[in-house]
Design a protein that fits this description.
By secondary structure, this protein is mainly α. The protein contains eleven helices and two strands. The protein binds zinc ion (2 copies). InterPro entries: Fatty_acid_hydroxylase (IPR006694), Sterol_Desaturase_Related (IPR050307).
């Protein structure tokens, strides 16, 4: 006896007609949110990797190699591991956040016009700078927070590119992840724009810590926060100054924590950033 089975529609054609219905619940499509999580991490290692490939750059260094070895109290291996741990921590937090806040509509927001994107970029820069200035300064004033959290970042007295995000994971979470989320929400930028913004913020953080002063660096034209400015903050004498990061130096100027400097040629090669104001 032959049984007749109802004829089912080919599942593949159903999926084509209704991709949202058949999207597996536990996987992320290659969304802008996912790119916004991972692209800045790739940018971090690629951009700082370029600085590594450029070599010692003795003619442009802000500290000699010997100083780097004697003043820094952590090895490069420890720094790489520390940054990877912090990035892993951030990925977990962001993916959890996206899982909770994820919309299943599958609608990709259209990009606004270029002037609007530029304005959103600017607003986001101001938000990140403001958030980071006050928290950064507070972490220096509060002895407990400095000792247990922020001193980890300052163990690199002579900063270098891939040490830029060498932070306590809590500092990375509060300053970078929460700061980034606030800048995203307040500026109203789309997740697509955020991929570029977070990547740019990563590049600026590396620029502030790269430890060299390369001639013709266009970013120096637009941003007064740079490797020399932030180098002052990383010196043992400079930790009460130049808290601003990563874009502008406005908060330091407004609140009297700005330490101007001169760039002097060093006889061993390279430059030295020297404070030009008397310090307390
Ligand atoms: Zn600091
Ligand atoms: Zn720093």
């Amino acid at each position: 006896m032959s049984a007749t089975f109802p004829s089912y529609e080919n599942p593949a054609s159903l999926i084509k007609r209704s991709p949202i219905l058949f999207r597996p619940a536990m996987t992320f499509p290659l969304s802008d949110e996912l790119l916004g999580t991972f692209v800045p991490i790739a940018v971090y290692w690629i951009y700082s990797g370029i600085y590594v490939m450029l070599g010692d750059l003795n003619q442009y260094r802000l500290h000699t190699k010997a100083e780097e070895e004697t003043k820094n109290v952590v090895s490069k291996g420890t720094v790489v591991k520390g940054v990877l741990v912090q990035q892993a921590f951030q990925v977990v937090v962001l993916l959890l956040l996206f899982t909770v806040a994820r919309s299943d509509s599958g609608v990709v927001l259209p990009q606004p016009s270029l002037p609007v994107i530029i304005l959103q970029f600017f607003v986001a820069m101001v938000v990140v700078d403001t958030w980071q200035y006050f928290l950064h300064r507070f972490m220096h004033m509060n002895k407990f927070l400095y000792k247990h959290i922020h001193s980890k970042h300052h163990s690199l007295v002579v900063p270098y590119a891939f040490g830029s995000f060498y932070n306590h994971p809590l500092e990375g979470l509060i300053l970078d992840t929460v700061g980034g989320a606030l800048s995203f929400l307040i500026s109203g930028m789309t997740p697509r724009t955020a991929i570029y913004f977070f990547s740019f913020a990563t590049i600026m953080a590396i620029e502030d810590h790269c430890g060299v002063w390369l001639p013709g660096n266009l970013l120096h034209v637009f941003f007064k926060n740079n490797s020399a400015y932030h180098d002052i903050h990383h010196q043992l004498y400079g930790t009460k100054y130049n808290f601003s990061q990563p874009f502008f130096i406005t908060w330091d100027k407004i609140l009297g924590t700005h330490m101007p400097y001169t760039l002097e040629k060093r006889k061993e090669g390279g430059f030295e950033a020297r404070p030009i104001k008397k310090m307390d």
